[in-house]
From TrEMBL:
Residues 330-392, 410-469 form the TOTE conflict systems S1/CSD-like domain. Pfam families: DUF7017, S1CSD-TOTE-1, S1CSD-TOTE-2. It comes from the Bacteria. This is Uncharacterized protein. InterPro entries: DUF7017, S1CSD-TOTE-1, S1CSD-TOTE-2.
Length: 474
């Protein structure tokens, strides 16, 4: 029972408590806390308990600076404070969380600590980034939920076994959903939300959750790794692993992806490619002084691994299949048939027309631009609206066999009028590009061919450009 002079006694104890926190004397600090708790100060004395929270955080920071081995004191100390009624939410309570977070965020103990502290008790400012002159620190709440998500998933898959804890998962998912509704810019939490849905077997919901995030992070290998896990289609899985391996990521980051890819190669009978990937895996494990997994060791003992094969080039394989993964990522965007009506290989740009309402340019790179010809039909998905007639594409494939629409294509016949430079010419109103002028063609020669519309922006008018020509007389 609370004694009349207990509060004044508690404040006297607090003066020593504060001193011990600054000294980093954890054992004396615990003894004083014990004396304070025996006084049974009511929780309504918020000023006193806020002061205690500040001192707890100060002690943790002091011990951290002194490089005291965390495992030797952190859990016994936590046991001493877990029943203290710290006011929450409050600045002192957030300070207490921050002091512990940096030293336990990579340990399983963090889950217990976060459950005790309560991730609903962050202050509004804890949800905002801290902007410093040289860099920006992510919001405390964001980092707290990120770490909780990662460690909870690890616990659910602990020691290779799956531990079902549906209530805990649903409870945390509900928190994640509320957080993401309020702070949609906490984008990496979509990754963990997807992982929880995948763990529960909610494949379609996991896919729908992850796709918008994946589009933002498509240059990161782990995005494609997770997309492979989300897909039920073997071809799509194969393409996603190729995409993940094509991004130039360090080999020591790719061991899980490469190991999964090896299994797909073996299943397809692509033993030369599988051997090449396994050899790269073994080199990576040896360079990092890591133990080579038994799974990889078993493969190296197989008869097919002992054979000699012609040289294979994994990068070519990745390039062959990776575009399929890009297509999957944007499956919900409409695919359109467009036709090449302009080529500028030096700048890596091609012009196109779908119809008079959709035409312009997009960048493909010099090497790819040289693969195209005027009049080629392409299957393309555009990511966003044009900016000054330039479009951004997300998937691009040849579309042979498509007929030319009469609305922007026509046949022509007439005499060739070469420019004095010999670099281009006209047949009536049809421009003949240098790429179509053959050495045996001469001025005034009669030609026939097909032409496609091209919009000349600088003249603000439509013109015809030849996509094929043929001499009909000399």
């Amino acid at each position: 029972m609370h004694q009349p002079n207990a509060l004044s006694d508690a404040w006297e104890h607090y003066k020593i408590l504060k001193q011990k926190s600054e000294q980093g004397d954890v054992e004396s600090f615990k003894d004083i806390l014990g004396k304070i708790q025996l006084l049974q100060i009511p929780a309504t004395e918020t000023q006193f308990y806020e002061a205690c929270a500040w001192s707890v955080g100060k002690l943790v920071y002091t011990l951290t600076k002194q490089n005291v081995e965390t495992s030797a004191w952190v859990y016994p100390f936590f046991e001493c404070i877990r029943n203290i009624p710290f006011p929450k939410p409050s600045a002192s309570y957030s300070f207490l969380f921050k002091s512990f977070f940096n030293i336990i965020k990579d340990t399983p103990f963090y889950l217990e600590f976060a459950d005790w502290w309560g991730l609903d008790y962050f202050l509004p400012e804890d949800y905002q980034p801290v902007v410093l002159p040289q860099y920006t620190i992510q919001p405390l709440a964001y980092r707290a939920y990120m770490r909780y998500s990662k460690l909870l998933l690890q616990e659910l898959h602990m020691s290779g076994t799956v531990r079902r804890d549906d209530f805990r998962i649903h409870e945390f998912q509900s928190r994640l959903d509320q957080l993401l509704q309020q702070y949609p810019n906490y984008d990496f939490l979509y990754y963990y939300k997807t992982r929880f849905l995948l763990f529960q077997g909610n494949m379609q919901q996991a896919w729908d959750t992850f796709i918008p995030f994946a589009r933002k992070k498509k240059k990161d290998f782990w995005v494609w790794q997770l997309l492979a896990e989300l897909s039920q289609d073997d071809d799509i899985q194969f393409a996603c692993y190729c995409k993940a391996l094509s991004l130039g990521t360090r080999d020591d980051y790719l061991v899980r992806v490469r190991t999964a890819f090896v299994e797909r190669l073996i299943a397809r009978g692509m033993f030369a490619e599988a051997k090449k990937e396994i050899e790269k895996l073994v080199r990576t494990y040896e360079q990092q002084n890591w133990k080579i997994p038994q799974q990889i060791q078993n493969h190296t003992k197989q008869e097919w691994f002992q054979r000699s094969y012609p040289e294979v080039h994994p990068e070519q394989l990745y390039r062959q299949y990776a575009p399929k993964a890009d297509e999957v990522l944007y499956f919900d965007l409409p695919e359109q048939i467009v036709y090449v009506n302009h080529l500028n290989p030096e700048k890596g740009v091609i012009g196109f027309i779908r119809d008079k309402s959709c035409h312009g340019f997009f960048y493909v790179g010099e090497a790819k631009a040289r693969e195209f010809h005027l009049g080629d039909a392409l299957r393309v998905r555009f990511h966003e609206q044009a900016k000054q007639s330039f479009y951004q594409w997300v998937s691009l494939f040849p579309a042979p066999g498509h007929d030319y629409p009469d609305s922007f294509c026509k046949s022509f016949t007439g005499n060739l009028h070469l420019h004095a430079s010999g670099r281009y010419g006209f047949v009536n109103d049809v421009y003949i590009d240098a790429s179509l002028l053959k050495s045996h063609l001469s001025n005034k020669q009669k030609l026939t061919g097909r032409a496609i519309l091209f919009y000349q922006q600088h003249k603000n008018k439509w013109s015809w450009i030849a996509i094929s020509v043929e001499a009909i007389e000399k």
